[in-house]
């Protein structure tokens, strides 16, 4: 069966560019009158009128609209290109899955995966031992299209995390974790806004038979089956 490509909808970058352009045109129309109002309001106070306010206030619409429209075109095009570059691109085949952005790429064998599901903005693939094989930011992909591509190629799609009930809220000092694991979990919580650091820490935690996620800005963790069966609870491996 021919592999299926899953991409950001083609209309998305166009909408981004148009939104920025419309905003720029609106600013071109609204900024000079607002600057003149602000200029008049400040004239009656001891506060100085900034030179930029005077400059904008003196612009006729015949200048402000074209200038900001041009800036909007440039900014909109740039943001659209950035969105396309950062968006996840998938190639789904019967025996493997390829994932790519302009900065990262990877290959996942079908035989390594026992379940695939959406977790908020992420696509998560887990192994038979419960390890997180990959957590991909799929926020720009349509859920229905993503599901259809995976199901169509025989991937084990799940409507929810099969390990949902295994997660517990993590707080520093909770028993059952080694000092090394606690240090990694502290870093994972601290770096949760840095996607690159999160990916690296998730890999390190996976080596300790731990899977983590964030819910309501709180870290949740579970021990994978590999760790449980190996008697590794509370041990570092």
Molecular structure report:
- By secondary structure, the chain is an alpha+beta fold.
- It has three domains: 6-86, no CATH class; 91-162, PH-domain like (Roll); 164-237, no CATH class.
- Helices cover 45% and strands 20% of the residues.
- It contains seven helices and ten strands.
- The strands form three sheets. Strands 1-2-3-4 form a four-stranded antiparallel beta sheet, with helices on one face.
- Helix 5 (179-190) packs antiparallel against helix 6.
- The chain is elongated and about 70 Å long.
- The two termini are 41 Å apart.
Radius of gyration (CA) equals 25 Å
Secondary structure: number of strands: 10
Helix content: 40-55%
State mean pLDDT (0 to 100 scale).
87
Query: Which regions are unreliable across 5 or more consecutive residues at pLDDT < 50?
Result: 228-237
- How are the strands of the largest sheet arranged? 1-2-3-4
Structural class: alpha+beta
Number of helices: 7
Major β-sheet profile = 4 strands, antiparallel
Overall spatial form: elongated
As for the number of domains, it is 3
H and E order:
EHHHEEEEEEHEHHEEH
**Distance between the amino and carboxyl termini:** 41 Å
How much of the sequence lies in strands comes to 15-25%
